[in-house]
Each structure stands twice: as C-alpha cells, then as structure tokens.
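*** Query protein ***
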Amino acid sequence: MENEIPHMQKNPGENFSTVEVDPVTGEYVIKVPEWIISEFGWYEGTEVNMEVDGDSILITEL
C-alpha cells in the first residue's frame, strides 16, 4: 500500500548516528532517530538540555 505510514522501530538494536558539520553554519549536527522524538512527544522547536555524564550524553526536555 503506497499511502501506508512507515513503521517506526522502538529502540532498535542499532541506534547509530554520524556527527556531521552543517556546511552553511559550520555547527556540528547529530540526527536523533524519529522513534526517540516520537517516544518523548517532541516536535520542531522543543528545547532540550544536553549534559555529559561519564561516557554518555544525557538529553532532557526543558
């Protein structure tokens, strides 16, 4: 069915993203998987806080 909504995997085994550089701004960018955005009910404009905790990065909504 071509109008079918794509199935989003929740917490798939491989959650890898590549650090990229925006060619216009020069800022580093990491894409967040769509299933994470949906799980937290985030949308464009949602403000988040990022903290380093040991070897991990914690992302929380403000």
